[in-house]
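> forwarded from #structure-qc
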C-alpha cells in the first residue's frame, strides 16, 4: 500500500483526496520508483482544484515532477538504486504522476539526478527550473548575451519566473522583473532583479508597437501580457514564451515581428528529448548554488498539497512549492 493524492470524477465535477492505494493499481510502466519529493506546479493546482481541464483520464494521481529511487526496472538504462528525475511527459495528466509515494513510468522519461543536487534541491528547481533554463538556452541560441541590454521576466514571483530571474542574474544579465505583488519586490531583488515593474503596465491592451525596451524576455503569462512584451521588444530581440497563466489567446499584431524582426520562441518542456533535458539540468548545476534555492522554496507534506493548490490558484503563493511525499 502507498499514499497518493487521487483526482476522481463525480457527477458534480472532480474531487481530490489523500488516499491509500495498492501497488497493483499502478499504471503500466517498465520502471518503478519510490518517490521522495515532488512539486506543486500551476498545472498540478489546476488538476487538484478542478479549475482547469488538464486531467485526461480518471482516476489520476497529479504531479508533473518527481525525484526518487528506482526499486524495480525492466528498462536497460535503469537498475535498482538509481537516483532519478522526471519532468513532464504527460504525467499527472494522462499517466499517474509524482504526488504519491510510488510511481511506475516509462524508462525513457527518466534522467539521472545530477549529483550536485539532492532530491529535495532537484525538486526545488523541478519543471519550473528546467523550463526556465530551456527558455534561457533558447535566448542564448538566438544570440542574446549579457551586454545586449535588459531582459524582462513576467510572472517573476512564480516558479518559472523566480528561477529565470535567478539564472539570468547569475549569468550577468540585467533583469527587469514583472509582478503584480509589489510586496515581494525585495524578494525579487535578492534573486537578482535590477528593476521591478508593475504587472498592470502589461495587463491592458496596448499599441501594436511600443517604445523599444528589452533585448530579450521570458514570458510566463501569455494573453495581453505577451502581446505587450513583444510590442516593447527591441529590434532583433527574442521573446521566449513558456506559460499561459493569463490565458491562451494572443491578441497581438504582426508589427513587432515584421517591422522589428522580433522572434517569438515557444518553449515546450513536456515532450523534450532526453538530450535537451540533460543539457538543461547540466547548465543548472553549473549556474545555481543549491543554497540559493532556499529563498525560493517552500516545503509541504503530501497531506498539505490540496490546500496549497488553492493558494497557488488564488495567487497567494510565491516561488517553488516542494512536496515531501513521505509526510
Amino acid at each position: 500500500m502507498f499514499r497518493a493524492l487521487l483526482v476522481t470524477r463525480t457527477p458534480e465535477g472532480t474531487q481530490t483526496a489523500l488516499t491509500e492505494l495498492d501497488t497493483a493499481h499502478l499504471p503500466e510502466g517498465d520502471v518503478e520508483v519510490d518517490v521522495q519529493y515532488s512539486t506543486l506546479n500551476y498545472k498540478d493546482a489546476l488538476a487538484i482544484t478542478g479549475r482547469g481541464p488538464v486531467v485526461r483520464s480518471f482516476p489520476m494521481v497529479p504531479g508533473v515532477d518527481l525525484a526518487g529511487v528506482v526499486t524495480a526496472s525492466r528498462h536497460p538504462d535503469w537498475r535498482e538504486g538509481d537516483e532519478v528525475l522526471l519532468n513532464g511527459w504527460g504525467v499527472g495528466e494522462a499517466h499517474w504522476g509524482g504526488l504519491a509515494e510510488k510511481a511506475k513510468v516509462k524508462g525513457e522519461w527518466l534522467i539521472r539526478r545530477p549529483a550536485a543536487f539532492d532530491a529535495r534541491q532537484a525538486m526545488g528547481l523541478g519543471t519550473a527550473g528546467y523550463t526556465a533554463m530551456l527558455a534561457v538556452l533558447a535566448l542564448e541560441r538566438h544570440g542574446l548575451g549579457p551586454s545586449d541590454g535588459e531582459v524582462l521576466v513576467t510572472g517573476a514571483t512564480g516558479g518559472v519566473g523566480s528561477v529565470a530571474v535567478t539564472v539570468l542574474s547569475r549569468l550577468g544579465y540585467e533583469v527587469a522583473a514583472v509582478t503584480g505583488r509589489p510586496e515581494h519586490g525585495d524578494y525579487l531583488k535578492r534573486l537578482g532583479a535590477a528593476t521591478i515593474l508593475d504587472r498592470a503596465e502589461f495587463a491592458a491592451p496596448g499599441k501594436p508597437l511600443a517604445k523599444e525596451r528589452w533585448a530579450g524576455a521570458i514570458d510566463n503569462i501569455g494573453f495581453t501580457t505577451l502581446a505587450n512584451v513583444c510590442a516593447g521588444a527591441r529590434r532583433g530581440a527574442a521573446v521566449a514564451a513558456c506559460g499561459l497563466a493569463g490565458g491562451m489567446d494572443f491578441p497581438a499584431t504582426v508589427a513587432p515581428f515584421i517591422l522589428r524582426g522580433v522572434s517569438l520562441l515557444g518553449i515546450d518542456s513536456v515532450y523534450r528529448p532526453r538530450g535537451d533535458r540533460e543539457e538543461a539540468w547540466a547548465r543548472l548545476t553549473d549556474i545555481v548554488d543549491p543554497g540559493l534555492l532556499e529563498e525560493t522554496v517552500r516545503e509541504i507534506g503530501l497531506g498539505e498539497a490540496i490546500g496549497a493548490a488553492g493558494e497557488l490558484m488564488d495567487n497567494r503563493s510565491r516561488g517553488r512549492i516542494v512536496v515531501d511525499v513521505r509526510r
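QC bot note: The mean pLDDT is 95. The first strand starts at residue 2 and ends at 10.
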